[in-house]
Protein 1
Amino acid sequence: MAKTAHDENGGAGGAASAVTLDRFAGAFTALCGLLVAAPSLARLDRVRDEELLGDWPLLEDPDSRRGVDLLRKSALAHESEGEVRRDYNRLFFGPGPMIAPPYESVHRSQDHLIFDLQTMQVRAAYAQFGMAAPRLNQEPDDHIGLEIGFLGSLCVQGMNAIDDNDDAALARIVAGIQSFLDSHLLVWGPHCLTLAANGSQTLFYQGIAAMSLGALQHARAVFLPNYDC
C-alpha cells in the first residue's frame, strides 16, 4: 500500500519530510520550465547531461525511468534545438491546432475555451499561497507547466515551513498540494501528457511527457494514496 506524505517520512514535520518535498520540488520545477517553453540550446544540453539524468529525483517510477532513457536517446540521436522547438510548438503552442492543448479549461470546460471557470479556480488556488501566473490576464493561468510549477513552489514553501518549525504552515501547504492534485492536475494532466507522449515527433518531448506523467503518478502515490481516478 502506498504511504501518505506523513507516513512515508516519519511525520509531516520531520527531516525526512523535507527530503521528499525537496525531491518533488526539483522534479516539478525542472518539468515546469520545459513545459512552459521549448528549451534553448544551452538548456537542452544541460537537460540531457548524463550526470544530471542519473540524478533525476524520481527514478523509482517506471515512467520517469523511461523518460530519462528517452532523453538519453535524444542526446545520442543529436536532436537539435530547432527540431525540439518545432515539436514543442506542434504539441503545445501552434500555429494551427495543438496536439496536446496545455490549458486545463480547454480540456474540462463545456465549450473547451481558455480563461473559463477552471482558469479562475486555478488563479484562486495560486492566490491562496501568495502566487500568481507570470503573465496574469494575458496568458491563461492553467497552463500545465504553470500548474506543475505551482506544486514545485508549494514544496519549497513546505521546506521553508520545516526550517521554521512551523507545523501549522506545513500542514496547510501539504493540504494545498493534496487539494490541487485532487481538484486539478490529476483530473486532466495525465490525459494532456498522454496526448503529448503519443503525438511527439522527438525523443526529447516523448521523454519529458513520460517524466511528467511519472511525477504526477508518484505524487498521487505519496500525497493521495486513496485517490480514486
Protein 2
Amino acid sequence: MLRSGLPLARILKASVCILFCCCSLRAVAGPRSEPTDTGVGAKYENTRMMLRNFYCGHELRFDATGNLVSGGKPGPWTVCRDIQVEKLHLSSGKLKITGHRVYLFYDSGVKLFRDILEIESREFKKTKSYQEMMDGQRVSIEIKPVQQTDDAGIAALMSAVFYTSTEEFLQAVPKFWKSVVDPRPGVRPASPSPANGVFHPGNGVSAPVAMYSPDPDYAEEARLARFKGVVVLTATLGPDGLVHRVKITRPLGMGLDEKAVAKVLNWKFRPATKDGKPVAVDVRVEVAFNLY
C-alpha cells in the first residue's frame, strides 16, 4: 500500500538507484582469491612430484623461474627429491604448496626404491622417533610472483620447480648414481682393464691396504627411521693411494649412499702394486651403517 504524498514513479526511481549502487560496490570489490582445489591446479593435489635440485628444508621459497630464494639447500635425492603434494593455494600473487616428503630406501629384493613408511612396524609408529621423522617430512613451498593464474600459468610455475619427466631427473642425478638409476644403454661405464691402466687385485697385482678409513656419518632421516644396512661401492684407487672415483654398486637409500661416498673419497691406502710398482685398481668397498 502506497503512502500518500509519494508518487509511484519516484519510489521506482529510488529503488533502481539503490540496486545500481549495490551492484557498483560489488564490482569495485572484485573477486576474492580462492584455493586452487576448486579449480586451477587441482590436478597436482594428491600427486607425487620430483623437486628440482633435491632441495632439503621445511619452508622453501622460489621465484617464478624456479630459483631458490630461501629456506633450503641441495641434499640426497632419496630424501629430498619426492614430495607428496597435498594442497595448492593461490593468494596475494603467490602459489603455496603444502605436502610431505617421501623418504626412499632401496629394496634389493625387487631392485626398486620404495617409501620407507611401507615397512614401518606398528610398534615403531608409536615411538617418539617415528613422530620426529613424520614432523621432519612436512614441507611448504612458496612460488612468487604469480602473473598468470590459469592452467598454463600454474603449469609453468610447477615445471620451474619440479621435474616434469624421469629423463630430467636422470640428467641431474650425481655421476656416482648413474649406473644404478639410469637403465639406458651406454650409461654404464666400461669395465676397467689393464688397457686403460686400471687393474683388479690378483694375477700378479697386490691388493691395496687401507691406512685411513673413518666411518661415515649417519643420515638423520635414516637414524630416525632406525634404518640400517650396507652400501656397496666400486672405488678406483690411484697409484698415489688416494681414491679418485667412486660409483654406487648397491645402494641403501635414505641419504646413506651420499654419506658413504663422501667419506670413502677421503680414505687413504697403501697402493696396489704390479711388478713392484704402484698401479691403479678398482676395488669393491662395503660401508656398513649400524645403530647401537
